[in-house]
Amino acid sequence: MKILVTGGTVFVSRFTAEYFAKNNEVYVLNRGTKSQSEGVHAIVCDRHELGDTLKKHEFDAVLDICGYNETDVRDLLGGLGNFGTYIFVSSSAVYPETRSQPFREKDEIGENKIWGDYGVNKINAERFLMANCKNAYIIRPPYLYGKMNNLYREAFVFECAEQNRPFFVPRDGKMRLQFFDIEDMCRFMEILLEQQPKQRVFNVGNPESVSVIEWVELCYKTLGKTQEFRFVEPNIEQRSYFPFYNYEYFLNVEKMLELMNETKSMEEGLKQSYAWFKDNRAEVRRKNYFEFIDKDLRG
Known about the structure:
The chain has nine helices and 13 strands. The protein is of the alpha/beta class. The termini are far apart.
């Protein structure tokens, strides 16, 4: 297939481009501010100033990884020539935090106060796409992780383990997190392209969630380390020392599992993530967690 991937230079979009380039002709659309992957064709252009840049191409699939709002989708659709299937990577942030869980695809979407404008913008992008593109799919992932993850999530825990630090967990550490390995997400997009199911919106993610304590234990175990936990009182701002909001949610992924009945174990996914991290430390966008911990938590 001839596939267009938006972005193609950082984490989700870069992994997606390289994954599909193994067996397809992949083009990436970005502004050329970062290095390009080998094996892909770069189209250096702003998606909001496409002109006729894409009109000469006929794509079998468009994988919109970097669409965040209605304008992003409108401008890309307007700049495309002929294409087959459009897959838009949305977010679990489209479900209001007040609704009962687990969230299902048929549930009403709306503002989530935890995610604010990010979720609202994704909703508007989804609605415009479905109203203006006949062959579109929307996928809604939870927290993504795995190889090429430049966000300071599992990388932060890996560094705590490398330095034999105790780990500071919010409250009692029982808050649950739902993850999805980036390679599994690409496998599912591949299935959508091959099978063209009638359903158009899919929650994606691991069928099980893990508690904060379980997640940290798995990260330390990846390095062959055992963690020591320190529990932090709820009056201290969680994002000052921990990479996730104080928000627990869970997606029902039964529809995804009907098409892809196996997902990668977190043990394997974290092992692959750490292998990448060891050789690409400079790619990670660090936050000042250690500074806050050493000054305000360890005293």
